[in-house]
Amino acid sequence: MPEPVLDALRGLGISPGRAAGRVHKMAGPPLLPAPVAVADTGVETARAVRGLESAAGELTARAEGAAEPAAREILEAQAMIAADPLLRESVEQRVAAGSDAAHAIDAACAEHREALLAAGGYFAERASDLDDIKNRAVAAVLGLPMPGLPAPGHPFVLAADDLAPADTVNLDPGVVVALVTEKGGPTSHTAILARALGIPAVVACPGVMSIADGTWSSVDGGTGEVRAGIDEQTAAEVERSARAARDRLATATGPGRTADGHPVKLLLNIGSVADIPAGSPAEGVGLFRSEFLFLDRRTAPTHQEQTGAYEAVLRAFPEATVVIRTLDAGTDKPLPFLGLPEELNPALGVRGLRVSRRSPEVLDAQLDALAEAARASGTSPWVMAPMVTTPGEAADFARRARARGLADVGVMVEVPAAALHAHRLLDELDFLSIGTNDLSQYTFASDRQHGELADLLDPWQPALLQLIAQCAEAGRAAGKPVGVCGEAAADPLLATVLVGLGVTSLSMSARSVPAVRDALARHTLDQCREHARLALAAADPGAARAAVREAAAA
Ligand code: PEP
Ligand code: MG
């Protein structure tokens, strides 16, 4: 007899798929309590040393378990720093001078950190490792859970208050079967990475941090439902049926079309050629985020470097559509080499295409490299600019691209002004691609990373769908393609709505393609249009989802 479900939580499902496992929480850094007087320095020194040893031991164990050589090296280096005799000596001296173990570790790590920074070069790069070591050693001393990714030694459901992209990028889908965060929004880059890794994920799920570690739970990354307190047998059943569903989807291939054969191109969102899987399930690339080439750089990549990167992507799909987006800088994608000044409201400042107001040479160099890559590969890439607001900006971008022989020029619709004037933009362009992540952010005046505002950023918001409908209608009238490359395209049920609104292509991470293909194949174009009508008429995202889900089930 299965045990009763103790807790049914609900958040926003942002990476479809079901999974079950034991929940393990990601603990935040420990807070230092007020200093305490030390009664016995011998005992306190032993506590402090044990804290350092357990941090070093933990890091060594993680290094041994790391699948990626690069991750293993980083962890081994961290473990060595934690075991450094100089660090230990510094801690012992501080305890001898009257400090309690936690404060002695905190101060010694701070001193060590400064020394590494002063040494410069490779040593300075290791300085931030000291924070992690300090947090682990202090947590051990205080008897608090180890901060960072849990390592329970078996696959698990990761629960966290929120996750930085750096936490998500290292997740192993073989170990973390699902992730659930208390905060976070549907269009944050963490959500994008979870989808790219194919990990079912739910964000903005209140109460998840109250689930006790080790509790068997199931997660539905489509509906956003989290059931905590299921029994092990039910968990195994969820895993079995999720595997069967994945296998069924993986065997379906071919171009995207509705049940009655209406074609809808299914394309890939990529950051580099490495994101295109062998035997890709998609029909081309709908969004190459070229800024990933420029991230973390002090100088712009050279012409050869850029040409090589674009050519590699173009050669991966020589016969198909490949849409390359020019540099999208600013806010959540800082590009140090541009030397942009700090802004009070960076999301509303000089970002995306606007960067070329200050540095037109960066865009021109990129277009030159792209034109050369097209010649070298004998292909005809589509090129588009991010964050375009007015028809004037679109015309200027089109002129610069066409002057270099790039024939198919478009822009992303990410700003409501662009959606409202989609027909005027199309006078200048060959296609539009709707970036629903930023279009949500700017339509609902809500930072896309802001967990508390996740409901406003829900891509099922009828007002967002209204703007998409307007763009699709402009495309239909002009006889030009209008695609969606924001995260909305990766939601299988919403994909039917977008097609019903008149969208001609959907672009997403490779892992999302099979489920979207399956959803389209199960509905006729008329059914998709009915889904679109229901969603547009709904009062809010919840009602829109419910109405379309009901129609789809019928
Ligand atoms: C978008 O804004 O929807 C988009 C696809 O661009 P990015 O997520 O890279 O900002
Ligand atoms: Mg965007």
UniProtKB/TrEMBL annotation:
TM ranges are none
Q: Which reaction does it catalyse?
A: L-histidyl-[protein] + phosphoenolpyruvate = N(pros)-phospho-L-histidyl-[protein] + pyruvate
What Gene3D superfamilies has UniProt attached to this entry?
Answer: Phosphoenolpyruvate-binding domains (3.20.20.60), Phosphohistidine domain (3.50.30.10), PtsI, HPr-binding domain (1.10.274.10)
Q: Main localization of the protein?
A: cytoplasm
PEP-utilising enzyme C-terminal domain span: 254-523
Q: Which residues bind Mg(2+)?
A: E414, D438
| Enzyme class, broadest EC rank | transferase
Give the GO molecular function terms: kinase activity; metal ion binding; phosphoenolpyruvate-protein phosphotransferase activity
Localization terms from the record: Cytoplasm
Reading the lineage from the top rank, the first entry is: Bacteria
Question: GO CC annotations?
Answer: cytoplasm
What GO terms describe the biological role, i.e. biological process, of this protein?
phosphoenolpyruvate-dependent sugar phosphotransferase system
Q: Where in this chain does the record put each Phosphotransferase system enzyme I N-terminal domain? A: 10-126
Residues binding phosphoenolpyruvate are R289, R325, N437, D438, R448
Required co-factors:
Mg(2+)
Function (record text): General (non sugar-specific) component of the phosphoenolpyruvate-dependent sugar phosphotransferase system (sugar PTS). This major carbohydrate active-transport system catalyzes the phosphorylation of incoming sugar substrates concomitantly with their translocation across the cell membrane. Enzyme I transfers the phosphoryl group from phosphoenolpyruvate (PEP) to the phosphoryl carrier protein (HPr).
Alphabetized NCBIfam families for the sequence: PTS_I_fam
Protein name per UniProt: Phosphoenolpyruvate-protein phosphotransferase
Source species:
Planotetraspora mira
